Amino acid sequence: MFAKSFRVKSNTVIKGSDRRKLKADVSTAFPSLSVEELSELVPNKEELNVVKIYAHKGDAVTLYVLHKNPVFFELEKRLYPTVYTLWHYPHVLPAFTTWPPVLQKLAGGADLMLPGVVVPLSGLPEVKKGDCCAVKVVSNRAPVAVGTATMSSAEMRSLGMKGRGVSVLHTYLDSLWAFGDKSGPPSIPDVDAEGVEAMYGEEEEDEDEEATEGVEEEPCPNSDGDKATDAPCPGIQELSLADREEGEQGKEEGEEYPEDPRSQQEQMDALLLQCFLQALKSKVKKSELPLLTSSFLRIHMFSCCPSGKQLDIKKSSYKKLSKFLQSMQQQHSLVRVKELSKGVESIVEVDWKNPALRSFRTPEDPGIEEAPVEVGGVEGEKPYHPPEITTLYMVSSRLEPLFQDAKKRKGTVLQPAEVREIITDYVKRNELVDEKNKNYVIINPILCDCLLEKSEYQEVEALKWDDLFSRTLYKMQHCHQLVFPGQPPIIKKGHIEPIDISVASRGSNKKVTMIKNLEVYGLDPMAVSVALQRRVQASSALNPVPGSKDRVLVQIQGNQVQQVCKLLLDKYQIPCKYIQGLDNKVQKPGRKK
Prior knowledge:
This protein is an alpha+beta fold. The strands form 6 sheets. It has a 7-stranded mixed sheet. Strands 1-2-3-4-5 form a 5-stranded antiparallel sheet. It has a 5-stranded mixed sheet with strand order 24-25-23-22-26, covered by helices on one side. The two termini are 55 Å apart. It comes from Coregonus suidteri.
């Protein structure tokens, strides 16, 4: 929370009533404090300041400052002690122990991961989920971080000490610590930690590597400090293109791979680099730049992954795509990545003459590349094939008795034709066809419970076949299936989101057209933006969609709904029913609806 500098809103001396309230709140929140200790932290006569600040993410926080040092901070009506307070009263909070190198990661904004927790001989401190707790380093009882437990101690042990352990809010060396006198932690011997260093010494490096997550680290996690930018990453040194080519040829001939002596992380680093180089060399065109990093991974890198293998960045030493691309930029100058809009990174330049890229040969012979189809005037753009969209239905808990004979349980996904076949079979097997009029089906107790409303129980005795089928589909959970060429089917619950086209005013009656949900249909927002920009000769921009992490909004000047529709319908061949906002076209003067 305080990894970056904050903004001070106000700084005032605390009132008498507020002082008494703070003293009562501290006593309630930290019952282990004695009366004397409480009076030292919240004295009756000494000056105590209330500082209201805004953290860099916009959170409103209240600080309580005594003797120029913040002693408590209040976030969402909950009090937390600072490291200055815990250095004098370390017994206030239960503390987890970790290794000293982890402190730098915590100060950078990372959370404490359970693999990095050192378990003393006395065991883990007992905490519940959400409890306030501290973090200390081996051999020193003085805490260096404050946060909340993400799970109880029992859950930590049951999960084998894996996952996120403490959500860190404040650390030694962060901006909140810098708001005080910037003194260092005292050396307080930790009796519980005796013998821990000897027991864990051999595993220290491994624990430190897994101890943190969610912070921008150097591309090579095993390197130290400033040496990270000078020392080349082991993945690029160990990757032998010739050896890899031979391995692919052996695979084609039906030979089995020998057991790889490298660790799983090293193998993933090599696979990541291979897919990266292959994507740059055989997939990415200069006309596509700038290219969203997320699109580069999803569309280009994943398609370069050899069959039988799965590309998983989290299993590599980089953990994140941004760190990997940063390494490729800083250490090897292969690409240049830039943040064109807030929170959205794009590859803006590729060094096509880089020796590593020029000498790279794809593991499999690409043969003659398919000539790019130029549609809509965008030169060099690869042809787009729309997904095959199928409406599916999932068996709900209410309809499970109706599908029980067909051995279709709750959650089974079915095609409409399969649903029709199962219902028809059920009706005939139970002899529910009306003998007088075979267009009707007699309602038995199961059909009554599954398909009828309560008000219809006494009134409806039979249904037409069409009504029976439509009611069944209506009561089921709607799903949809997307099938992209060369990719496995993707099944999602609910109706598919349409591509949304809207027009908004931007002062002085200026209009802008906004398009979102392009990613749902496998469309690259950057490619669509460039195509529109060239088609209508107007400026365009990419903005993140509020409330979504991986969606991007294409914005172009003017009311361009008609041109957007032509692009989506004619070039990308998206069916009209999956486009929303077609009625926002510019109306020609003199025409009335």
